[in-house]
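> forwarded from #structure-qc
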């Protein structure tokens, strides 16, 4: 049985890692963007941003002043035994969020949507948020994701139903139009990691888009060739816009485009986008049944599906 002390510490470590550092795939995306950038101002912007991120990791400070919504994805082995069960897992997560807020890894940004009441610890109704996936085995994998307010609120999340008759062209037009409008809003901090959900109901498409943006590694490809082609087409099209870092113009407007899909209804195709900040903050740990804990370079969320 995995003790609460062990998994709560792993959850806290995932928050700390995600708040202060970026994953190897995101580092690689920054380095590739810097190497190919042809505009001096954009290249300097990428270099300074990357330098700032590396400094945050060295000092253990948040990589961005907006520490975002605390979102958690748990990949749970079917034979996994947790002390206290899943209710204790969620309470341990709330406890870890409170601790991370108290120790300065998270800013207290979660408020009541109407009164503005701020509990001061980032814990409230549906916050932190939990998503589960059940798989064979006895281990627990936890991934923490910081979803920034700009990329979520100011146009970075959008949804539309596309007619079957419009097909791939209709899907791609919606995505490009949405990215342009979101960039003009000034809230999504390009270059982004853009997640796209295709199919399902509106909430299924939106959830897939968020998972694609936050849990797929930059540079990964959808195994289905039709959806991989959409990823490649949109990556080329969006970067050809010349938006560049923070909209100043440049060769890289998106670091990656990740598409996930669900079967849909004959009535239409739900399409959603979710933009993740350029820092793409996440932290993942595996808590093994034998009591060992391993840091993970990737959330491992889509493997085995």
């Amino acid at each position: 049985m995995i003790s609460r002390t062990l998994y709560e510490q792993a959850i806290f470590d995932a928050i700390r890692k995600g708040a202060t550092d970026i994953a190897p795939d995101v580092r690689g995306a920054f380095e590739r963007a810097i190497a190919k950038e042809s505009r001096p101002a954009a290249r300097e912007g990428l270099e300074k941003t990357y330098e700032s991120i590396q400094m945050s990791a060295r000092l253990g400070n948040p990589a961005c002043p907006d520490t975002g919504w605390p979102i958690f994805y748990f990949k749970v082995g079917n034979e996994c035994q947790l002390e206290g069960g899943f209710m204790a897992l969620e309470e341990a997560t709330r406890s870890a969020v409170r601790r991370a807020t108290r120790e300065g890894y998270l800013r207290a940004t979660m408020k009541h949507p109407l009164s503005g009441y701020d509990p001061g610890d980032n814990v409230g109704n549906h916050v932190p948020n939990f998503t589960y996936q059940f798989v064979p085995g006895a281990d627990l994998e936890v991934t923490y994701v910081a979803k920034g307010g700009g990329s979520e609120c100011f146009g970075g999340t959008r949804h539309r139903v596309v007619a079957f008759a419009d097909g791939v062209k209709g899907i791609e037009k919606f995505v490009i139009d949405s990215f342009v409008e979101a960039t003009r809003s000034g809230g999504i901090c390009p270059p982004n990691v853009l997640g796209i959900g295709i199919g399902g109901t509106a909430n299924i498409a939106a959830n897939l888009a968020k998972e694609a943006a936050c849990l797929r590694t930059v540079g990964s490809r959808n195994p289905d060739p039709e959806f991989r082609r959409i990823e490649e087409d949109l990556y080329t099209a969006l970067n050809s816009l010349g938006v560049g870092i923070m909209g100043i113009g440049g060769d890289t407007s998106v670091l990656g485009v990740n598409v996930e899909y669900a079967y849909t209804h004959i009535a239409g195709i739900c399409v959603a986008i979710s933009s993740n900040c350029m820092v793409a903050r996440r932290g993942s740990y595996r808590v093994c049944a034998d009591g060992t804990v391993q840091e993970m370079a990737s959330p491992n969320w889509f493997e085995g599906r």
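QC bot note: The helical segments are 4-20, 24-36, 40-59, 85-102, 149-153, 167-185, 202-215, 225-239. The first strand starts at residue 69 and ends at 77.
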